[in-house]
């Protein structure tokens, strides 16, 4: 994960550590190298500029120049700033409600259905009663896919293959959940290959009518700045509660993970790191920063 970025940052620190006496010029050059590494990792330009300005300010303000181990102190400062960029603290995920409704949104292929299965699996392992709901009314294959995943993780899947009204299906699923003692309903929705008005209207209506406990936006982290732009568009329409970053296992750059929080101002709540049902984790900004810095 993020090997490309980690390698470049490591190189920047190595250059600094290799200098005999550290001067303000050395620090400035290292910070510039860090900025270049972030931009080539597809971090939003303004985000990269702001964060490296802060790193430089901190480095000079916190006496990196006279510290015993200037390289280490700079790594610490960069770690703190990357953590802040990704939201600082781990975000809460609310599953209170009777039932709690978790609405899953995002483009087709982003990993919504896979994530729905993983989230159900994670919650089930915590002893929660979960119902998965297939609301992709356009792709019958999506219903089958969710059924397969539901079976795999041992969670019931609610579907009405003949019904073309997503809201009706979701409302029926909630009724079914109440009748069968399920406390969390995960609603997997239809996505398109690109943002379009009809999809946006549909998901907007679902959100308005269902008033979900959590609305999550799922996005493929490998798409870098496209992921950030799509998140922005969805957030303007949906005002979602959190982001799910998928396919981090294949992302060598990390641009989406590092920019999305600052640009969209919504927390990353989950990360997905593979196709298997247990490849899901809560998102910890500090752990991610440490991982990037190796
Ligand atoms: P949806 O159209 O948004 O529901 O997307 P899917 O859940 O069908 O996922 C699209 C493809 O991405 C599938 O082949 C999944 O197996 C794959 N996928 C989903 N999440 C991950 C992940 O975290 N890592 C990897 N490597 N593949 C993933």
From TrEMBL:
Function: Involved in targeting and insertion of nascent membrane proteins into the cytoplasmic membrane. Binds to the hydrophobic signal sequence of the ribosome-nascent chain (RNC) as it emerges from the ribosomes. The SRP-RNC complex is then targeted to the cytoplasmic membrane where it interacts with the SRP receptor FtsY.
Segments passing through the bilayer: none
Gene Ontology MF terms in the entry: 7S RNA binding; GTP binding; GTPase activity
Location in the cell: Cytoplasm
Chief localisation class: cytoplasm
Residues involved in GTP binding: 106-113, 188-192, 246-249
Name this protein carries in UniProt: Signal recognition particle protein
Highest taxon, organism lineage: Bacteria
Gene Ontology terms: cellular component: signal recognition particle
Assembly description: Part of the signal recognition particle protein translocation system, which is composed of SRP and FtsY.
Origin species: Roseivirga echinicomitans
Record's comment describing the protein's domains: Composed of three domains: the N-terminal N domain, which is responsible for interactions with the ribosome, the central G domain, which binds GTP, and the C-terminal M domain, which binds the RNA and the signal sequence of the RNC.
Residue span, SRP54-type proteins GTP-binding domain: 267-280
Enzymatic reactions: GTP + H2O = GDP + phosphate + H(+)
Classification of source organism: Bacteria, Pseudomonadati, Bacteroidota, Cytophagia, Cytophagales
Family the UniProt entry places it in: Belongs to the GTP-binding SRP family. SRP54 subfamily.
One GO BP annotation of this record: SRP-dependent cotranslational protein targeting to membrane
Portion held of the full protein: 1 to 294 of 443
EC number(s) stated in the UniProt entry for this protein: 3.6.5.4
Keywords noted in UniProt: Cytoplasm, GTP-binding, Hydrolase, Nucleotide-binding, Ribonucleoprotein, RNA-binding, Signal recognition particle
Gene name of this polypeptide: ffh
């Amino acid at each position: 994960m993020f090997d490309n970025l980690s390698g470049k940052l490591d190189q920047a620190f190595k250059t600094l550590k290799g200098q005999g006496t550290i001067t303000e010029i050395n620090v400035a050059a290292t910070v510039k190298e860090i900025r270049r590494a972030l931009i080539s990792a597809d971090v939003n330009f303004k985000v990269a500029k702001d964060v490296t300005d802060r790193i430089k300010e901190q480095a000079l303000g916190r006496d990196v120049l006279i510290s015993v181990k200037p390289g280490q102190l700079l790594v610490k400062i960069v770690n703190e700033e990357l953590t802040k960029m990704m939201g600082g603290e781990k975000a809460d995920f609310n599953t209170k409600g009777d039932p709690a409704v978790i609405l899953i949104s995002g483009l087709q292929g982003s990993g919504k259905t896979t994530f729905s299965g993983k989230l159900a699996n994670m919650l089930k392992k915590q002893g929660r009663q979960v119902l998965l709901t297939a609301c992709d009314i356009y792709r019958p294959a999506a219903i089958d896919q969710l059924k397969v995943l539901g079976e795999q993780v041992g969670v019931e899947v609610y579907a009405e293959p003949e019904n073309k009204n997503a809201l009706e299906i979701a409302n029926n699923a909630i009724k079914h959940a109440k009748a069968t003692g399920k406390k969390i309903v995960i609603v997997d929705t239809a996505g398109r290959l690109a943002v379009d008005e009809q999809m946006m209207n549909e998901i907007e209506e679902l959100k308005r009518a269902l008033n979900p406990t959590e609305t999550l936006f799922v996005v493929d982290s490998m798409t870098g700045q496209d992921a950030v732009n799509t998140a922005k568009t969805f957030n303007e329409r949906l005002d979602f509660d959190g982001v799910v970053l998928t396919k981090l296992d294949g992302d060598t750059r990390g641009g989406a993970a590092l920019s999305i929080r600052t640009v969209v101002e919504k927390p990353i709540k989950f990360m997905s790191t593979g196709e298997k049902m247990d490849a899901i984790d809560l998102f910890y900004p500090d752990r991610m920063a440490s991982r990037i810095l190796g």
